[in-house]
């Protein structure tokens, strides 16, 4: 395994969208996935499936679906406008980087699609009465926590890619055309896709991740009570 | 920052539910949160808020809500039964560990609640016509990807805690009683909670994470085509 410190990896694994077409060794992808599955999942169910798309024709088709879905996304971004925490220049760069990917998704040597098989309750009338009474709430709960069983693994993928010198980015636009993606990847109806991650050796560089500071996004004990960092983070 | 290799952290950050009551220095919590916010979020929106609960009375009340929610969870677990990939013994240990937490959540010195402010579209009739046509699909899309903006940060929290020698676990049971949690934490109506993480110095030890192997959860190019690891992971 490559030697990289945890914090080095977390602080430099920025989204890299410009990737070389050089192939990525199968063994490295396996190691990235082996790191992914160390993540937790709800009830430790591990109901994840990872589709590793390397076939050129499959990548081309997946890229075309992503392009179409991104057309929808661009309308929404335009309607929503710049997030308050970004400067005009940051927003311009963010949109330019995104637009590059809209046209080049299929060029990445590896497209990784993390999926989850939906956990379903048995039919309502097969359940004991106390559980039947909870049924609707439980369905809503499962929908709410779906991502808890896959996005921790996605973050491990991002960090493991960083360690191997691979660029990637978590994208979700394709979910706007998920039916087409599922058909292309031959997914069963109860398997949903949660991300589309281009992976390859980056043209750009890893580097620091700029974020709103902790002091602006953390509260002590209840909403509205500032969490005061006791010292500057260095 | 503590020196720990990325892979060491990912492979040993197992769920630790038995925690000492010793306080955790504020500075360390801030560093954990500073690592959390290096994670990606959908559209880089960073619409996360972290509530750090240390006040004893707030922890006691949050623990009581968690206990109530876990009562519901235990009915559901019983109805669902043992996941196919766990042995009877693994399942027994999993349920015993979970049950311990149901009764001791409030005893952890820190309860961290990662939240997201919902991204909302402007009112439909304030939008350009092409976006109005996409409105329903976009609402469904936002619900599907909600977790993409918070669970990567949750995984960074788990890994950063591991580095600082802190035990934690990602739990979601409290969402079954989320209204009570939101009232207790004074959350605005458009802020949702996504996890409840007890944090403290562990009584147990960090250790290897047993998982279904990659060969059973990965496919090449499309569903059903085995992804063959080219060598054993060592």
Question: Helices and strands in order, then pairings?
Answer:
2 copies of one chain form a homodimer.
Chain A: H1 6-12, H2 26-36, E1 48-53, H3 56-80, H4 88-104, E2 110-117, H5 129-132, H6 135-145, H7 151-163, E3 167-168, H8 178-184, E4 191-193, E5 197-200, E6 218-220
Antiparallel strand pairs in A: 1-2, 2-4, 2-5, 3-5
Your description of this structure?
The two termini of chain A are 28 Å apart. Chain A is globular, with a radius of gyration of 20 Å. With 234 residues, chain A is α+β, with helices and mostly antiparallel strands. In chain A, helix 2 (26-36) crosses helix 7 (151-163) and helix 3 (56-80) runs antiparallel to helix 4. The mean pLDDT of chain A is 92. Chain A contains eight helices and six strands. Chain A has one domain: NADH Oxidase. Chains A and B meet through helix 1, helix 2, strand 1, helix 3 and helix 6 of A and helix 1, helix 2, strand 1, helix 3 and helix 6 of B. Strand 1 (48-53) of chain A pairs parallel with strand 6 of chain B.
């Amino acid at each position: 395994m490559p030697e990289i410190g945890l914090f080095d990896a977390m602080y430099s694994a920025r989204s890299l969208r410009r990737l070389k077409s050089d192939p990525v060794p199968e063994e490295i992808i396996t190691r990235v996935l082996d790191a992914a599955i160390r993540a937790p999942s709800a009830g430790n169910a591990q109901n994840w499936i990872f589709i590793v798309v390397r076939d050129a024709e499959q990548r081309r088709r997946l890229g075309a679906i992503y392009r179409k879905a991104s057309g929808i996304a661009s309308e929404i971004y335009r309607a929503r406008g710049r997030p308050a925490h970004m400067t005009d220049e940051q927003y311009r760069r963010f949109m330019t980087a995104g637009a590059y990917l809209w046209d080049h998704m299929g060029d990445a040597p590896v497209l990784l699609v993390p999926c989850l098989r939906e956990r379903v309750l048995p039919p309502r009338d097969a359940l004991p009465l106390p559980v039947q009474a909870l049924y609707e709430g439980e369905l809503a709960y499962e929908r709410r926590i779906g991502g808890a069983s896959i996005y921790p693994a996605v973050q491990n993928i991002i960090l493991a890619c960083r360690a191997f010198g691979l660029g990637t980015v978590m994208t979700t636009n394709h979910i706007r055309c998920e039916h087409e993606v599922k058909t292309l990847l031959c997914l069963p109806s109860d398997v949903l896709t949660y991300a589309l991650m281009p992976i390859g050796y980056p043209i750009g560089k890893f580097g620091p991740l700029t974020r709103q500071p902790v002091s602006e996004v953390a509260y002590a004990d209840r909403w509205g009570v500032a969490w005061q960092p006791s010292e500057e983070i260095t």
